[in-house]
Amino acid sequence: MTSVLRHHRYGRALGAGVLSVALLSGGTAGAFAATSTPSPKVTTTKKPMPTRTATMKPKPMPTRSATKKALPKTAAATVAAGSITVSTAHKTVKHGENVAFAGRVKGVKAGTTLVLQHRMNGKWTALRTTTTVNRNGTFTIRRAFTKGNETVRVVTKDGKVMSSPVSVKVS
Predict the structure, then answer these.
(1) Is the pTM of this model over 0.85?
(2) How far apart are CA 13 and CA 29, in angstroms?
(3) CA dihedral 141, 143, 149, 154 (to 10 degrees)
(4) In degrees to the nearest 10, what's the CA dihedral of 105, 144, 149, 101?
(5) How far is 95 from 167, CA to CA, in rounded Å?
(6) Helical H segments across the chain, by residue range
(7) Alpha helices of 35-166 — where are they, by DSSP H?
(8) Ramachandran class of 13: left when φ > 0, alpha when ψ lies in -120 to 50, beta otherwise
(9) How high is the pLDDT of residue 86?
């Protein structure tokens, strides 16, 4: 049939059209396929592309507990369970007058030393006023202040448990 198309006028036009369409749509590989001479088949042995899961093992991500040192269970329970509440009966006092701060602790052993701190220049600093926790979990700590506004809190000596701040105006 190919020889009939080559010698016939309409056949040559049809063959040229097939060749042009093959060149336009399939590129040179399509043009070779449209010609009468068979092209040699090229066979390549490609290795299959490895998948990500086959070649790469995911690295284990460090957990938060693995990066930080874990506290013993007894220490973690003491820190989490400990609390100090403190209040004062007088929010305004005169210069030189003692202010009594009374409070209660939970999760802190009796006999633990408590320290009074005040806020100075944005930092908490310890005052030389201390007390100990009573057997029933209560405490009282007294301090005289100079004129101005004082913001104080009560903290365990080791600094692990602290109360909310309390403000006192000294005139």
Answers:
(1) no
(2) 21
(3) -30
(4) 20
(5) 15
(6) 2-7, 9-34, 52-55, 64-67, 73-81
(7) 52-55, 64-67, 73-81
(8) alpha
(9) 96
- Write phi, then psi, for 47 (nearest 5 degrees): -80, 140
Half-sphere exposure of 135 (CA within 13 A, CB side): 0
Task: Please choose, from the candidates 59, 61, 88, the residue with its C-alpha nearest in 3D space to the C-alpha of residue 168.
Answer: 88
User: How many Cβ atoms are within 10 Å of 62's Cβ, its own excluded?
Assistant: 8
Tokens representing 55 are 């070649």
What does the pLDDT look like over 126-161, one tens digit per residue? 999 999 999 999 999 999 998 899 999 999 999 999
Statement: residue 117 has pLDDT above 90: yes
- In a 3-state reduction of DSSP, which class is residue 132? strand
Q: Judge contact between 84 and 101, C-beta under 8 A.
A: no
Alpha carbons within 13 A on the beta-carbon side of 3: 0
